[in-house]
Structures are given as structure tokens and as C-alpha cells.
Design brief:
Layout lengths: L5 H16 L8 E6 L2 H5 L2 H14 L5 E6 L11 E4 L6 E3 L4 H13 L8 E3 L3 H4 L1
Parallel strand pairs: 1-2
Antiparallel strand pairs: 1-3, 3-4, 4-5
Helix pairs in contact: 3-4
Length: 129
């Protein structure tokens, strides 16, 4: 990589600061947690995490934090993602690629509807009452 100008360095710094602010949880009501265990990473969880960060920025959503965790115990369904938001049950989605991550932001976070074809775990109906 060649030398960067001061302007390029400042743009890079702003971009990375914005990405890091999305990982802060304080004051944010919605959490997206990406499973980043070894099987998750091998299945593309880093691309999934990046897709969430990018889509949230495009949608200008500042009340959502994106963070990572280890394995969620669903290795057969990696990459896995848990979404926690008020008024909806906590959901674990599986086989979340880049397109599915965008769909989760648009349908689940913005539209408050579940992405049924990727749900791998959710509370039992009697717990939701």
C-alpha cells in the first residue's frame, strides 16, 4: 500500500470510528449478535458482520448495536445471528449470508416481521405470552 494523504487518512479514521460506534451497546435498544466461533468464521461470519454494519449505515439506524460472540451451538447452521429488540421475541437466525443480513435489517429490524426461512431458534409460544 502506498502513502496516504492526510485527507485519505481522515476519511479512513471517520469510517472506522463510525464502525466502532455501532458496536457500542449503551443507549441502543436493538442488538444484533453475530456468532464468530471458528465454524462461524469458516462459514463466512465476517462477511455477515460486515454486511450488517454496512446495511445499518445505509439505513441510518443509530439505535442498533452490532457485536460478536463465540459459537451459539448451532454449527450446522452457521453463520448464526441473534436479534434482540423490544416488542419481539429474541430470534436466532441461521445460514445468514450477506443478502440474508440485509433482509434481516429491512424486514426484522425495520419492518418488525420475522425472516421465517432462516429462523433456527426462538422462545416457545407459551413463553411469549
Amino acid at each position: 500500500m502506498g502513502k496516504m494523504s492526510l485527507e485519505e487518512l481522515q476519511r479512513l479514521r471517520q469510517s472506522k470510528q463510525h464502525e466502532m460506534s455501532q458496536r457500542e451497546t449503551e443507549g441502543k435498544s436493538i442488538e444484533i449478535i453475530v456468532g464468530m466461533g471458528t465454524s462461524g468464521i469458516a462459514s463466512g461470519a465476517k462477511l455477515t458482520l460486515d454486511a450488517f454494519v454496512e446495511e445499518l449505515s445505509e439505513q441510518n439506524l443509530t439505535n442498533v448495536s452490532v457485536r460478536q460472540t463465540g459459537s451459539m451451538g448451532l454449527d450446522h447452521a452457521e453463520p448464526t445471528v441473534e436479534v434482540k429488540m423490544p416488542g419481539m421475541p429474541d430470534i436466532i437466525y441461521g445460514r445468514v449470508d450477506v443478502e440474508t443480513a440485509k433482509k434481516i435489517v429491512r424486514k426484522h429490524v425495520l419492518g418488525k416481521t420475522l425472516v421465517n426461512d432462516h429462523i433456527f431458534d426462538r422462545p416457545a409460544a407459551d413463553i411469549n405470552k
